[in-house]
Inverse folding.
């Protein structure tokens, strides 16, 4: 591990704590156990005492499908609780090749710097010339400066520098998007980290068995429908289906179906703008695509990263904009400025909602006129957020700040625990009500408890998942399914594997065992996942989270009048109650029982 | 009638044409489908049948004889037992495909726009008096 104190400039090699690594397997498991001891409720997330960790997992850099991801963690400046985001591309494996499993960043530099890591040297370099540059240009400059295109970069854009609360960390046009990790990096005056390793090769504990386990997993992933679908259509591949079924958020969560969805779906994107797949390291899926728009107002300069599903919703269905080319533009701007397209896009969509419902006027928002379907005001707002100008300065602190500024009820704002909810409507899959509020690890999240995908039929029955109706009245079963999914994803995301690759859990156990040499089976997968999940719960409670904070606004719960989910909504209070019981958490304090903590070996935390 | 018999396959086509929801959901659809039922449980041999599908109509169905190779844009394949679960409404088609119990190949862009139509084809099965093996 590499420890860097930006205040003193001290750079130290430290040993990975094997005990933590074994009990809290992987990136965010290790980070949360480590950070728990150093961060408390009073720690300013944007102050020098917050600690930012870049971590890889035990599979990173191997041939395991989708194992090229890395995770970034810290106390979130956006939610005040656990902050975490992971990112694909090639940075993680390259960091491993330098000989480091992770980086711990403390303190704050007086001037902008970047951290250059090779297998021979680690240096803090002046980054004054990079300050103010977008992420795309920063990548280009650093690769040129360091003399190789193989140098991998993780950097912030102007949004991170200006501590926009939902700023991202970008790497090769991918992003560690949620919970404002880019703002933490910006608060430390750290513009970028560059890595270039050559010698260290991935070594599994049981090489021959590992090869066989990877072969089995790869065959499974290659044959799965999601691999084919996401490979050809990208993550927006589900848009048509979601629209038909009432899962797609439309018109700031107030409509259940929309004919414009056809024009912005992955199917349409594959026919009109995709140029090629652009896979991450060791990924057989290749959901990311390059795109180009050849003519018109939003013509691109060559190929750019194509928008993901969540971005398509933010700048498409949420504001009734069916011009796919304009969404490509919005995506490029957000990527370059380093803005999370979910939080940024949803906050902007809130402005559309308020404006079109007569709750704010053009005068309140710098003269902008965000009529439904008009993308230009959204593009303006993206720029204003990145520069913290005018209405952008309020938007940069998120939807709740917009609500506070204009006296809007919290029930009209699609956030929970301070963060915008992602885009799988909970009125379609009721388990998402828990994913967006109760027991969340990093605020509302579609990756920590992806019931919308699990109930489509992912092969998780060995974990105890029951394939019930997505709108089942059996709240106890829904709560139990969610608890299992939360635990499994806590480990899976810690490994850091991509949730679009879903081999059966026994295959995952085989890969872990042969890679690490630890005895692993489904039971240990479940227990390790629960330990990581519960550790995040303890971190959040330490930061001051209470069960009262775990709520949802009415705009997300009010039954829709049209579409596939019309007239349906979960009984949220009942679900919450069931979830607390399934977890054996105290209803008042939210703390897990001593029995649970003891079972997980966390009783002394 | 006996599942996977020539008579049953013909009836399946009629049931699709008698389903107004399918007509509506698949009004734009063009693309024939080959259904490949693989041996499992009481079925000891492969059975393949053809579904002609064009703009909300089933244009014809027949059992595919060994050696025949009709030109189909889409193929749905899987073991007999899983098809029975789908036919009985115990397994959702999309769940079947996502969990790997059934395999669907073809143009993904078209398929993802046709999930409701696919569901209506399966719903049509409920209107056949099927005798399972």
């Amino acid at each position: 591990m590499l420890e860097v104190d930006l205040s003193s400039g001290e750079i130290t090699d430290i040993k990975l704590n094997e005990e933590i690594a074994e009990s809290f397997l992987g990136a965010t498991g290790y980070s949360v156990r480590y950070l728990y001891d150093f961060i408390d409720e009073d720690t300013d997330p944007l102050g020098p005492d917050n600690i930012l960790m870049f971590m890889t997992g035990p599979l990173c850099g191997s041939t395991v499908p989708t194992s090229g991801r890395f995770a970034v963690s810290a106390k979130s400046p956006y939610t005040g609780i656990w902050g975490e985001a992971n990112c694909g591309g090639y940075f993680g494996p390259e960091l491993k090749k330098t000989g480091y499993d992770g980086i711990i960043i403390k303190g704050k530099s007086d001037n902008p710097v970047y951290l250059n890591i090779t297998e021979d040297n680690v240096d803090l370099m002046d980054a004054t010339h990079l300050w103010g540059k977008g992420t795309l240009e920063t990548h280009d400059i650093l690769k040129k400066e360091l003399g190789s295109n193989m140098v991998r970069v993780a950097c912030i854009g102007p949004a991170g520098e200006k501590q926009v609360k939902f700023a991202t960390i970008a790497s090769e046009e991918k992003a560690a998007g949620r919970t404002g990790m880019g703002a933490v990096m910006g608060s430390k005056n750290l513009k970028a980290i560059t890595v270039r390793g050559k010698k260290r090769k991935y070594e599994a504990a049981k090489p021959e068995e590992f090869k066989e386990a990877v072969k089995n997993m790869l065959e499974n992933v290659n044959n799965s429908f999601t691999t084919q679908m996401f490979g050809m259509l990208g993550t927006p591949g589900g848009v048509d289906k979601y629209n038909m079924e009432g899962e797609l958020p439309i018109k700031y969560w107030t409509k259940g179906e929309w004919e414009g969805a056809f024009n912005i779906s992955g199917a349409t994107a594959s026919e009109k703008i995709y140029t090629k797949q652009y896979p991450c390291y060791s990924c057989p899926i290749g959901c990311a695509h390059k795109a180009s728009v050849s003519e018109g107002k939003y013509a691109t300069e060559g190929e750019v990263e194509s928008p993901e599903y969540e971005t398509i919703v933010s700048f498409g269905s949420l504001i009734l904009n069916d011009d796919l080319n304009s969404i490509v533009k919005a995506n490029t701007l957000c990527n370059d400025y380093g803005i999370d397209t979910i939080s940024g896009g949803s906050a902007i969509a809130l402005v559309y909602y308020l404006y079109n419902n007569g709750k704010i006027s053009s005068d309140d928002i710098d003269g902008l006129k965000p009529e439904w379907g008009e993308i230009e005001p959204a593009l303006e707002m993206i720029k204003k957020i990145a520069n913290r100008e005018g209405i952008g300065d309020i938007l940069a602190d998120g939807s709740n700040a917009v609500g506070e500024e204009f006296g809007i009820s919290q029930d009209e704002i699609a956030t929970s625990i301070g963060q915008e909810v992602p885009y799988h409507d909970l009125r379609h899959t009721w388990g998402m009500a828990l994913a967006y509020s109760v027991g969340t690890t990093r605020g509302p999240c579609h990756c920590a408890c992806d019931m919308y995908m699990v109930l489509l039929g992912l092969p998780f029955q060995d974990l105890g998942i029951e394939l019930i109706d997505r709108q089942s009245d059996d709240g106890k079963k829904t709560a139990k399914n969610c608890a299992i999914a939360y635990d499994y994803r806590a480990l899976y995301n810690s490994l850091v594997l991509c949730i679009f690759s879903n081999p059966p859990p026994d295959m995952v156990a085989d890969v872990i065992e042969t890679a690490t040499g630890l005895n692993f089976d489904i039971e240990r997968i479940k227990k390790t996942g629960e330990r990581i999940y519960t550790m995040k719960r303890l971190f959040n409670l330490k930061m001051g989270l209470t069960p009262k904070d775990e709520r949802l606004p009415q705009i997300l719960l009010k039954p829709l009048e049209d579409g596939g989910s019309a007239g349906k909504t979960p009984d949220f209070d009942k679900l919450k109650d069931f979830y607390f019981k399934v977890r054996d958490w105290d209803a008042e304090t939210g703390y897990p029982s001593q029995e649970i903590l003891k079972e997980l070996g966390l009783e002394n935390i | 009638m006996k599942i996977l018999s020539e008579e049953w396959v013909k009836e399946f086509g009629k049931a699709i044409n008698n389903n107004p929801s399918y007509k509506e959901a698949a009004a734009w659809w063009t693309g024939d489908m080959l259904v490949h039922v693989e041996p499992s449980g009481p079925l000891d041999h492969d059975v393949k049948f053809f579904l002609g599908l064009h703009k909300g109509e089933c244009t014809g169905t027949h059992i595919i004889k060994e050696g025949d190779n009709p030109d189909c844009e889409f193929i749905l394949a899987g073991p007999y037992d899983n098809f029975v679960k789908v036919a009985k409404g115990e397994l959702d088609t999309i769940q079947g495909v996502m969990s790997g119990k059934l395999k669907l190949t073809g143009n993904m862009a078209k398929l993802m726009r046709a999930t409701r139509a696919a569901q209506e084809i399966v719903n049509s099965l409920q209107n056949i008096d099927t005798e399972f093996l």
Summary: Chain A touches chain B at residues 220, 223-226, 228-229, 232-233, 237-238, 240-241, 244-245, 262, 265-268, 270-271, 455-459, 467 (CB under 8 Å). Residues 41 and 543 of chain A are 4 Å apart (CA to CA).
